[in-house]
Amino acid sequence: MLPYLLLAPALFVVGAFFLVPLAFSVGGAFEGPQGPTLANLANAASLYRMDLLFTLLIVVASTALTGLGAVAIGGYLTLGRSKLALRLLGAMYRWPLFIPFIVAAQAMRGFIGQNGLMNNTLVWIGLMPQEWAQSFLDWRGIVITFVWKQLPFATLLVAGAMAALDRSGIEAAQNLGANRLRILIGIVIPQVARNIMVALVLSFVTMMSVLSVPMMISGQSPTMLTVAMAWRINSFGDYGTANALGLVSCVMTGLVAWVWLRQAAAERAR
Amino acid sequence: MDRRTFLAATAALAATPALAQQRVTLNVLTAGDQNMVDYITDYLGPMFQRQNPGVTVRSLGTGPGDAGSQRIWERLEAQRRANTNSVDVDVAVVHQTMAGRMVAEGLLARYRDQAATGQLATSDVTRNALGQNVDGFVLPMFNSQIALAYNPARVANPPRSFAELENWVKQNPRRFGYNGIRGGMSGVGFVFGWAYAFGPDQKRLIEGPFDAEAVSALTPAFQRLREFNRNVVITPGNAGTLDAMNRGEIDMGPVWMDMFYSWQAEGRLNPAYRLVLPESGMPGQPMYYVIPARAANSDVARRFIELATSPPVQAEGIVRRFNWLPGIDAQHVRQHLDQQTWDRLFRDVGPDQLARGARPMPQADFMRALQEAYERVVLN
Amino acid sequence: MSRSVMWWLPRGLLLGLFAFFIFGPLVNLVLWSVAESWFWPNRLPSQYGFRFWERVFRPEGQAMESLWLSIWIASLTTLLCLAVSVPAAWALAKANLRWRAAILMLFLLPQAFPNLPVYINIARIFFTFDLNGTVIGVVLVHAAHGLVYSIWIATAAFAAVDDDLELAARNIGASALTAFRTVTLPLAAPGIAASAVFVFLESLDEFTASYFVGAPEVRTLPLLLFSAAAGGNMQVAAITALILLVPSVLFMLIVERFLRAEVLAKVGK
């Protein structure tokens, strides 16, 4: 009984200030002027199915890149031998950790444009002719910003888990002459797979609900569902369709969460 | 206290209007970009406070675009539902759509006839907001107009019509940019301008009455826009178009004229860039000063709007400092401006061109239907 | 010699590229904040100055006021989150709960669901309780959002504390509460502090909820940044962003002190 009593206040905060409005929102998706309806969902599907697909692709791509980057950096931090390189990398990767998405988007906007700071610098150093300069302010820009912002968080979790590993296995493999890539793939990653999953799930759901980045980086269409939602509400005051879109993205994140939960349960059963 | 200061103090007290006796906080809610909020906070508010000791102007911005107006509406509506005696908004600055709706729903007070400056604004928009009669309920804060900005170094002969623009874009792929319809009114306005130019009945779209067939009659025009879009860059937001011009990523795009001038003044845009307004017209819109029904300080609110719409303030604040077109009729403002400022305002788009090319936004139902039609035809 | 060059060159290049990727966007912000004139085809600002800094910090400007308000809200949010999540995290870490995974998931939900429609509905509910546009309202919503950090990280921190230590304390006669207060809590404190940092920053940087629940009365710094960015005022947006960056970078530099690897390894488990 006591544990549940201890949990109660926290559950109340989430329940009252999240679950109840969430229920309102889900209800709103089926609410029409004349009682319950599926019209909102139909409207959402007919106007925004491309956006749905696009959102999924963007978020999956960003999550995958974040995962790769986190494993690469975490792996180097665990297995790297050069003290100097380790210190430099360790000091650098965390910088964007707490930078708000809105600041990240603002900073990126001027950086990755066609004549933005990035291309300008590359041209100026002579690494690239001016004609190659192209704008990344489209879906690629969204992915870049997401990865830039989420990579430190994922890396922090993954590298932390790797650092906590028992090093005897790694050392044994090193003594047997295995190269570091094989140690990373064969020994380190399997042991921290769950931490990588946690980092990726958290990143995935965070990116699903970001409004400022797609809004500020790319005006192109299709775009992310959050932009479509804000657009329905701000321009039409149409809460029905917006709630329907919300429901759709909730189902999407719900699926991811379910996969994760199932895996957790499987692990527990083992 | 010696006698002379005492006398001076009494005289000062007697001279100030009655409202100075009580302390009043005037709540001014502004929907729109930050510069509009800055205008109230930095310029108009302090001036009103100096002229009316005892009054404090509390300026709040509710956010850019129609969403900002929506928030003001929500607030008024909530207080009406709660049946409060007075509402805590004294003056609101709102967009046309919402002004029309607020008038229709009886949320606003009729004040123009009592306002000393009420007769200085006679243009169409003081009576009609997107098809809704708002006569007597509003005074325009300023007018703003969408035009095409271009880089003269790359665009030798700027297009005078949408058909010319279409051609130019074909020859110069991805050098024209606009912000679609989800990122702010300059893009939406461009789409409306397109519908005005290539649709069968421009007058119908602007004046109504609404019917769905008039919307489907626009499908060929939207299909044409879909083709056009293949060769353009879609930018994020009103500022996004200017931003892309700032970095030289596009050579032409639709922008709000006032934003364009401000960007040049603040070093974010090459001063050589120019504006052009195509013949078949592009929309503009005013922002309205309104007073809610049952506003707590409606008399002070009216005085505030009188100051805001007085010719000297319109000249100095609206035109000279913020590059907007005046809300009241231009001839009243002209005499308070030096030639240089006047010329700067009409540098690229002269008064005649403006008279020919400035259009209102479409009637409210059309406005919504056109945006949905764009989503259906152009985006899918 | 040549071997060490061969050895360092690829690493140096990779590290350099990575630094460029990480710091480039930030340099862009810094440049904009002091640019009085910067437009194509100039690669760098053609005129530098602090005109816009003066504008942001002018007496009528609300930057400082917004900054203090943001910090105040973030502090209250952190306090609230810690108050409810320390007991909850202990329960999740130490008691053998049947629904543990599901409960952990529950706290993740506010992060998982695209929150825009939720905030709109919160705003509607708050209207009836007069919580819209109040600091309390904003704090409550931020807390619901930040709980995932405080609960998950604090749970991991408690889980990393060896049960035997607490048992040993109980064996020498300490009550459950005393054992918790004198043994478990101090050992978990660094992790809890780290979770507080996460909550604090989450609240400090939160935009969407503040926008729907707090604005226009409660003007936090991210709201100020948003209106500057949406209005295209690059310089003011850059300066506001830099102000927001200060606490973020400070905490980033110290977070590793609190977050030990053993704790990190247990997050979400």
From TrEMBL, chain A:
Alphabetized UniProt keyword annotations: Cell membrane, Membrane, Transmembrane, Transmembrane helix, Transport
PANTHER family, per database record: INNER MEMBRANE ABC TRANSPORTER PERMEASE PROTEIN YDCU-RELATED (PTHR42929:SF1), INNER MEMBRANE ABC TRANSPORTER PERMEASE PROTEIN YDCU-RELATED-RELATED (PTHR42929)
Family: Belongs to the binding-protein-dependent transport system permease family. CysTW subfamily.
GO CC annotations, alphabetized: plasma membrane
GO biological process: transmembrane transport
Domain ABC transmembrane type-1: 52-260
Domain of life according to the entry: Bacteria
Topology of this chain in the membrane: Multi-pass membrane protein
Location in or out of the cell: Cell membrane
Residue intervals passing through the bilayer: 53-79, 91-112, 142-165, 196-219, 239-261
Stored Pfam families: BPD_transp_1
CDD domains cross-referenced by the UniProt entry: TM_PBP2
Entry-linked InterPro entries: MetI-like, MetI-like_sf
Annotated protein name in UniProt: ABC transporter permease subunit
Primary residence: membrane
From TrEMBL, chain B:
Superkingdom assignment: Bacteria
SUPFAM superfamilies: Periplasmic binding protein-like II (SSF53850)
Claim: Signal is one of the keywords in the record: yes
Gene3D superfamilies registered for this protein in UniProt: Periplasmic binding protein-like II (3.40.190.10)
Keyword Signal: yes
Keywords from the named record: Signal
Annotated signal peptide: 1-20
A Pfam family it matches: SBP_bac_8
Name the UniProt record assigns to this protein: Extracellular solute-binding protein
UniProt organism field: Falsiroseomonas algicola
Upper lineage: Bacteria, Pseudomonadati, Pseudomonadota, Alphaproteobacteria, Acetobacterales
UniProtKB/TrEMBL annotation, chain C:
Transmembrane segments: 12-35, 67-92, 104-127, 139-161, 182-201, 221-254
PROSITE patterns recorded: ABC_TM1
Keyword entries, A-Z: Cell inner membrane, Cell membrane, Membrane, Transmembrane, Transmembrane helix, Transport
Coiled-coil residues: none
Taxonomy, superkingdom: Bacteria
Family annotation (Gene3D superfamilies): MetI-like
Keyword Cell inner membrane: yes
Keyword Transport recorded: yes
Bilayer topology annotation: Multi-pass membrane protein
SUPFAM superfamilies: MetI-like
Gene Ontology CC annotations of this record: plasma membrane
Pfam families documented for this protein: BPD_transp_1
One of the protein's GO biological processes: transmembrane transport
Intracellular or extracellular location(s): Cell inner membrane; Cell membrane
Main location: membrane
InterPro entries in the cross-refs: MetI-like, MetI-like_sf
CDD domains: TM_PBP2
Domain ABC transmembrane type-1: 67-255
Family: Belongs to the binding-protein-dependent transport system permease family.
PANTHER family: INNER MEMBRANE ABC TRANSPORTER PERMEASE PROTEIN YDCV
Name this protein carries in UniProt: ABC transporter permease subunit
